Task: inverse folding
């Protein structure tokens, strides 16, 4: 079974630009969660999508948005990038129940200059 | 809302020595508890999880963790550390009956010296 894939793996953007990150979950998984990882902050939950619906949302500004397609693939968009958005963005897929293991992708490293 | 504290940012142990990584959580009811490991350049991998029942949980790679309700702790242990265990370890808590929303601690970076 193929794992969770994230594209691109690395991105360099400048302040004010926008960016779209993509995540393909494990086949059969309907839940995709997104996390921002920065040194000292650990993983901070952005949002979770299940069957194309956002079920949970973390405490991030509206510049961070996402969506999920009918094939469960998910995209995350960040508009008007700020220097503080530089981070590793991780995507995780699961069956959708909290007791089930989340499978993480390798992440997208975003650098904002 | 639930929260997780990992008081040790960085730990160094000698290869072959025992290991204990601390995790304290805050949640009103019995939580779901997880330990994940992240190797450099990799995503996170689940080591073990606790939902209910036996408070001593066995995981992969020889790790175990003990849930102590009275101390709100879920410490990770390994009797003998291998150099390949060098990584960052994350404790996480989830809400029973909730959707897939898990709160992670800030992580403990483990260094193993020969």
Result:
């Amino acid at each position: 079974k193929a794992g969770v894939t994230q594209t691109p793996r690395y991105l360099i953007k400048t302040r004010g630009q926008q960016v779209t990150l993509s995540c393909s979950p494990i086949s059969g998984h309907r839940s995709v969660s997104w996390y921002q990882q920065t040194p000292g902050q650990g993983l901070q939950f952005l949002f979770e999508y299940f069957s194309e619906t956002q079920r949970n949302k973390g405490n991030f500004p509206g510049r961070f948005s996402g969506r999920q397609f009918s094939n469960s693939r998910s995209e995350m968009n960040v508009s008007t990038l700020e220097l503080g958005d530089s981070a590793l963005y991780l995507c995780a897929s699961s069956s959708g129940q909290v007791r089930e293991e989340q499978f993480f992708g390798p992440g997208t490293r975003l650098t904002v200059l | 809302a639930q929260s997780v504290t990992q008081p040790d940012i960085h730990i160094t142990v000698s290869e072959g020595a025992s290991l204990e990584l601390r995790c304290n959580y805050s949640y009103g009811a019995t939580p779901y508890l997880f330990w994940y490991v992240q190797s450099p350049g990799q995503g996170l991998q689940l080591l073990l999880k606790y939902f209910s029942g036996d408070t001593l949980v066995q995981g992969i790679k020889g790790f175990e963790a003990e849930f102590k309700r009275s101390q709100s702790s879920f410490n990770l242990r390994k009797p003998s550390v291998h150099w390949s265990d060098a990584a960052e370890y994350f404790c996480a808590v989830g809400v029973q009956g909730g959707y897939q929303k898990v709160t992670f601690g800030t992580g403990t970076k483990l260094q193993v010296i020969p």
Notes: The first strand of chain A starts at residue 5 and ends at 7. The mean pLDDT of chain A is 93. Chain A touches chain B at residues 4, 31, 33, 35, 40-45, 48, 50, 55-56, 90, 92, 94, 96-102, 104-107 (CB under 8 Å).
